[in-house]
Amino acid sequence: MSTSLDTLPVSWIRPVSDGSGVTFRMYPSAARVQWLFPATGFPAQRFLRLIRPYSLPARWLKALAERGWYGGGSVDLEPDRLADWYRRVFGGTLTLADVAIYLGAEGALRKVVLAGTDRRSGGALRFVKIAETRPARAVLRHEAAMLRRLNERPDLCGMIPEVIESGEHDGCVFLVTKAGPLTPGGPGFSPEHWRFLTRIQKHTATQAALSDSPFWHALRQRLAVFRGQVAEPWMRWLNAAETVLLARAADSRFTFCLVHGDFVPWNISWGEKGIYVYDWELAADGFPRWFDVFHFHVMRRILLGGAPPWAEVLRWHARLQWAVSLPQLRWCYLLYLVEKTLHFAEAWRLAPEKGSNRVLRWMTQELRREVLAA
Fold first, then answer.
1. Bridge partners of 35?
2. pLDDT reading at 95 higher than 90
3. Using 50, 70 and 90 to split pLDDT, how confident is the model at 1?
4. Helix spans in 151-277 (H)
5. Cα 86 from chain centroid?
6. 22-180: CATH architecture
7. What does the alpha-carbon distance between residue 236 and residue 292 come to, in Å, rounded to a whole number?
8. What is the CATH number of domain 191-373?
C-alpha cells in the first residue's frame, strides 16, 4: 500500500519546485509514500494518530516518527487546487495545516483520502475519499449509496461511517464522512467480529439453491466475459472450479445476504459500541453468508501471516457452533475463491502494472488446491 510521487492518484496533487508550493512531510519514505503531512508547525503526534500499522516494520517506523525521525523528507505541492478542494469539502473550517493526505493503495480503484483533524485535540474530524479514474469513481458512488442506506438502520449507528456529503467536483467523485474511531481492531478474529457480521446480515438473508441464485448467474456471466478476454494460467483453475461447482454444488441451498466485501483487520477499529468498520465500496447484496469470514482470514494470511484460512474457519465453526455443515461451508469457500480470484484478476487487467499480483497469485494457488481436493 505505497506509491511514489512520480505517479499520483489525482491530477490536483502536484509537486512544484519554484518556491510557490505548500510543504508536506512524506511518510514513511520518499520512495514509498503513503501519507503527506503538513509541515507547517508540524505536530507529529497529531497526524500520526491516523496511522494504524499492523506489520512489525510498520510499527517500528511509526515509533521512530513519534520520536521525531522521518525518513521521507519533504515535498512542495501546488497550493491553489488543494485549497479549492479544502474549501469545497471542509467548508473553509480547516486550513492546509489541518489536513493530512493519504495517497491510497496502487491499482485501478485507487483513491485519495483527506483526513481533517482538530487543531486542539488532534482528533480526526472528517474523512474525505476522492476518486478520479472511471473505475474508482464508480466504486465510490456505490460506497456512498450503500452507506446512506445503512445509515438509516439505528442498529448500525456508531459502527459504520456516517455520510455528511457526497458529490462531484473538479472532475472527481468525493465522499465526506464523519471520522470514526482510530483504535486498531487488531489482527485477529473474535466473537465481536461475528456479532457485527450477523448484525449487518439482519433483514437481508434469503435461501436458494446455488443454481437458482442471482449471485451464481452473475458470477458465471463475469466468468464468461473474462474468459473471452484473457488467456492467463489462472483462467484454467477458474474454469475448473466452475465445472466442479456445477456438477456437485448446483442443487445445494445456500444463505445469501449483504456482505461488506473487504472485511479485513485494517478496515476495522474498536469503538464505543464494539467494532467499527470502514471502507464499504465492495459491499454487496445477495452474496453467500460466509464470504466476509473467509475474506478476513485469507487476507490476513496473505498480508500479515498466520494460520491457513481454512484451519482458522474450522476453529471458529467449532467454537461458535455455526449452523452450517462442513461440506456446505467448503463449497462456500470454493465460491469465495472463485469470486475473489476473479475480482483481483479484473483489477489486474485494468492496471496490470499495479497492485494485486501477490494476492492474485495466492488466490490462484489456493483455488487450485481446493479444486484438486474436491
1. 27, 102
2. no
3. very low
4. 191-201, 214-227, 234-248
5. 24
6. 2-Layer Sandwich (3.30)
7. 25
8. 3.90.1200.10
